[in-house]
Design a protein that fits this description.
5-stranded antiparallel beta sheet; flat; 7 helices; alpha+beta; 203 residues; 7 strands
Length: 203
């Protein structure tokens, strides 16, 4: 129950650890040299262990693994920390964490921990998960921004359903749906970047 209630912070922790391990090694000069090599030429990435991992494909795979983590054992593995050796040690660690949280005023007795991370827009969603809006929300804006070296396009699309029936797809080709309730900006391109913006009026 504790793991499920704190899954968002667990994912952020694993992502931060991975980022630190991949990109924050050595002095500022060493890091700058690594970044310069990576952006200048993919062939120059073999000079260090971190450079060998510095690719979009490997980053994407690692994020997929992070989003798939469902056990304490795997959480500690991807956090590069030592996992408690027994269920008893794990239970004691969680009890101590709750005591410290109460002492610092992070929670109160009777608080529903499963609801503590469901508000706001910082929730990381895995495939199959969903986000429900609050009753007071009236307008939502999504923005997809990317950069490229050669001509390349990404697409942000909004799929509208009535129950399980798909009733409309709004994208760069079909940019407006029903009385401007959903508006897609279409391709907003420069010679090095692109942006898609989708505005949804929920009322």
């Amino acid at each position: 129950m504790t793991f499920e209630a704190t899954i968002v912070s667990k994912r952020l922790t694993m992502l931060t650890v991975y980022f630190q391990w991949l990109l924050c090694k050595g002095s500022t000069k060493v890091r700058a040299f690594t970044y310069d090599n990576f952006y200048e030429s993919a062939a120059a990435q073999t000079s260090s262990s971190s450079s060998a991992h510095l690719s979009y494909q490997k980053f994407r795979y690692y994020i997929h693994f992070i989003m798939s983590v469902k056990t304490w054992h795997h959480f500690y593995k991807y956090s590069m920390a030592t996992c408690p050796r027994s269920q008893g040690e794990m239970a004691q660690l969680l009890k101590d964490a709750i005591k410290n949280s109460a002492r610092k005023g992070y929670h109160k007795r009777g608080m529903d921990f499963s609801l503590s991370q469901k508000s706001g827009t910082s929730k990381l969603l895995a495939k199959g998960e969903q986000y429900s809006k609050s009753g007071t929300m009236r307008r939502v804006v999504f923005q997809d921004h990317w950069t490229f070296d050669n001509t390349m396009y990404l697409d942000a699309s909004c799929l509208m359903y009535s129950g399980k029936k798909l009733i409309s797809t709004i994208d760069y080709q079909n940019t407006i749906q029903g009385n401007d309730a959903v508006v897609h900006s279409g391709d907003a391109m420069t010679d090095r970047s692109g942006t898609h913006t989708i505005e949804i009026l929920l009322k």
